[in-house]
Amino acid sequence: MRITGTGSELPKRVVTNDELMTFLDTSDEWITSRTGISKRRVLSDESLDKLAASAAAKALENAGIGANELDLMICSNVMGPYITPGLSCIVQGLIGAHCPCFDINAACAGFIYALDMAKAYLDSNKAANILIVSAEAVSHMTDWNDRATCVLFGDGAGAVVVSKGEGLRAVRLGTTSNTEVLYQKQITGNSPFELNQVKDPSLVMNGQEVYKFAVSVSAEDVKAVLEQSGIQAQDVKYFLLHQANHRILEAVRSRLHQGKEKFPVNLDRLGNTSSASIPILLDELNRQGKLSDGDILAMSAFGAGLVNGACVIQWNFK
Ligand code: UT7
Question: Which end of the chain has fewer CB within 10 Å, C or N?
Fold first, then answer.
């Protein structure tokens, strides 16, 4: 499997830490020092499906193929505009594709899970061109009165086209069932028979527990995929870590003994965009001309589940 095109799209509305201070008991100092985030993008008059479709169209254009050449689309998404149909079905219509489509929810690790699934489809010759779109509207999930969570997140979409080739050198996925430290319940409807109705769910997070999980699993995963692929950390051009918190990035970086320049960041401008954070980061690097054929990229993500995933990719674009 190799990545042949990337794209991303962001909502136009920028929300700074100062703006959050107008309705929350928080400060720019607290948010930047604890998280590294100074602003984020949030959906206002756009819809997530259009954002996802725009990222997808850019990735197709970058890959030089049409939507009609796609054999499969996988959307990674936690909460789309509909419970059903899935986001991928809506995006398919918007970009004019005709391939089978489905969604996966592996929280913030969804992009890595989708890459692994795409590889399986390519390896079994069930598909030649696959579109992966990671699109998240976390601003629709958080309680905007809860300063401990809403300041952390942002919305966005990232997409890649993958085709056959030599690129994905190693993958490692993991799941540790835990519905205590990071979760959001589903509304149960108004069934008169349901005794435990959930009416007003919002995202709940024990930040310190997620933090501990993230730091230990991410460093361990990256070391494992590097070992699997026979690549040394010093030979990695960029480590693309899920953009959750700059302190997590720093802790993982110091465990890997690598320089800051190898850890690109969009967290400061975009907040935590869940599974979209890594493909957006990848698209930024690609469009800035910072990737050359042969470059080694290590990716690592973690999130609600608890799930974790990491991979090593050799950039073979042309
Ligand atoms: O995508 C994966 C999902 N999430 C993550 O990866 C998040 C991982 N965890 C984290 O990034 C950090 O745990 C947080 C940034 C969420 C929190 O940082 P922390 O250093 O663990 O802070 P804390 O939760 O221990 O809170 C410290 C204090 C508390 O006040 P008291 O009890 O000490 O008086 C909080 O009430 O900071 C308070 N606080 C705030 N103060 C100002 C919490 N949120 C805010 C806020 N502004 N926005």
Answer: C
Domain limits at 180? 169-314
Residue 191 confidence class, pLDDT cut points 50, 70, 90: confident
The domain that contains 133 carries what CATH number?
3.40.47.10
Does any ligand 1 atom lie closer than 6 A to the CB of residue 273? Answer: no
Site to substitute for ligand 1 among 23, 30, 34, most atoms within 8 A of C-beta:
34
Task: Give me the residue label for tokens 């990256």.
Answer: 222
Under 8 Å CB-to-CB from 101, ≥6 apart: which residues?
Answer: 72, 73, 74, 75, 86, 88, 89, 91, 92
Q: Is the pTM of this model over 0.85?
A: yes
What local confidence, expressed as pLDDT, does residue 197 receive? 84
Cβ of 26 less than 6 Å from ligand 1 = yes
Same domain for 57 and 103: yes
What number is the average pLDDT over the span 184-198?
A: 86
Q: Which residue is listed with tokens 């493909």?
A: 279
